[in-house]
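User: My collaborator and I are trying to settle a disagreement about how two of our proteins should look. Neither of us wants to argue from intuition anymore, so we agreed to look at predicted structures for both before our next call. Could you fold the first one, then the second, and keep them clearly separated?

Assistant: That sounds like a sensible way to settle it. I'll keep them separate. The first protein:
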Amino acid sequence: MNIRTWLLVISFLGLFQQAVYGQFGFSNEVGIIAGPVAFYSDFGQRHDFETNSGNIGFGVGIVHYLNFAYRGDFNIYTRYTYFNDHFKVRSELDYHVTKLQHYGEWVAPDKTSLFADQLRAMSGEVTVIDIGSRLEYYPLSIRAFQANGYKLMPYIGLGIHWVHYKPEVRSSLGDLNSPITTPVKYFNAFQQQAGSTFSVVGSVGVRYKIGQFSDIMLDSRWQQYFTDWADGLNPSLENNGERPVPENKSNDWIYWLNVGYIYYIN
């Protein structure tokens, strides 16, 4: 591509940006988030406190917001509409890692069967990178919050993320898929390969204004994956060919409680 073509492309992008600003008008916010991630998977026992508190990892993310209440180019508010004053579009890139173990009554100290020993010997780890967007609704006025009309700003959000996951499943007893190492329900029901899927993300949170151009945020997120393989396990009769697994009722999902810092860049 020669210099003239590059100049034409740059000019077109500049005109397009001006048109977008002129027609829609928005400002930008950027930030970072971090916090513990509870991974709900086929490791452990359903509705068990020890499982829920034990299979916890940690995640970080980079976030970007489109704020339609404020025009970054002219340093003024946009034309008032309900949407502009109560909605933002949030995009983000996240990374989290969780180590997984079996917890619950079937691995309690008083369980001495081969099945219990096999479960205790199993462990895993899942690394996740996801990217996506969601629409956030603010019941209070975004303009009033930016003007320090109040310090706290609650919100709810809903969106879609693309997810890339890399699971690892192992046993301290030896290679999996052996009668010595693997419970029947997990035969042929594990994988080590990376994969990708989509997920639904729902969140509830609150912002607290600490400066004219900066907020801190507390965000509570539920994220349901469209696969049951994210943790590397998917016990089912279809996979093991011998035993039904009625306790495997849903795909993998996470709960992520994070705090963040948001800066208004224009």
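The second protein, kept apart from the first:
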Amino acid sequence: MNLLSIQSHVAYGHVGNSSAVFPLQRLGVEVWPIHTVQFSNHTGYGAWRGQVFEASLIGELVEGIEDRGRLVACDGVLSGYMGSAETGAAILNAVGRVRVANPRADYCCDPVIGDVGRGVFVRPGIPEFMRDAAVPAADIVTPNQFELEFLTGHTVVSQTDVLAACERLHAKGPKVILVTSVLTDETPVASIDLVASGPDGRFLLRTPRLDVSLNGAGDAIAALFFLHLKRTGSAAAALRAAGSSVYGLLRRTFEASSKELLMVEAQDELVQPSTVFEPLKL
């Protein structure tokens, strides 16, 4: 499998491509990373060095791969945080070129907009671009609960609300949806939920809730869910594999009191999770 991953990149730590590429490679995928930025570390530290690349660089690099005659072998495109609407437009242009070369290729969009407690944390115009352009173009989307509410205009309080919001999101175009960081009235206090919705049904996966907030976990689960969905064709199987792996990765990181995901040290969790959680059909 060959996947084109267009995301940010940091030299230290694991967010964006620094969180998505290694898990995919560890599981046998050939990844073609295109970096939209290159920073010393993620911006959550409050200070960083590096630069944002021009959106035109995305098109140049995709054209270079096309010159090699390899876009026909690209099985899918993965995108995450978009620093500007121009970057977003360049990513969608890249998706279009890949689909021309290989109509069977899929586009997985992690519509990074914000989160509960933090609100919207991307630049003005990005939330609307995600809602009106990126999500309708995607085959698979992986919003968190806050982003699901924004994209659909549907408040989520119960599991029924989650499913109703997913139906609204399906109506915009995506065939498969993974909702992360789900907390509803039915979620136990010490737990957190993931919900997947696809042609094979609607599924919930519940794991213990860890007292930790780590940048890059969403990037990792989007990549893993995309990979396992491509391999199995099943939203349930992808939810089981990705959710179990990321829980193991987070647990190992939490136990070590690390501020960065232990992506390399805990890489066995990517291949054989220490705890496997079974999804429940809703």
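Some points you might bring to the call about the second protein. The two ends are 31 Å apart (CA to CA). The chain is about 40% helix and 20% strand.
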